[in-house]
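[Meeting: bench + compute handoff]

Bench side (C.D.) handed over the final construct sequence. Compute side (W.E.) agreed to return the predicted structure before the next meeting so the bench team could plan truncations. Sequence as handed over:
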Amino acid sequence: MKRFNIVCIAALPLLLAGCLEVDQHPAWLKGEYAGKEDPRPYQTRFHNDRLAWWAAMENRNSKQNEYNRANP
């Protein structure tokens, strides 16, 4: 009887582990996503100026090139 109780107590966490699964899919209502839209980087930091954002990215990328930075 003692062995049966130990087996039951040990099996309880295994049985409850599946109950804690949380649904990770977004809600869809009428075929559309019902959540908040994520803003694009150029919308938040560059006031919706896509060309300024693109110029900043190009400038950042050119400074990461070791051949351009070394100036041999």
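W.E. noted at the follow-up: Residues 39-72 form one domain. C.D. will use this when planning the next construct.
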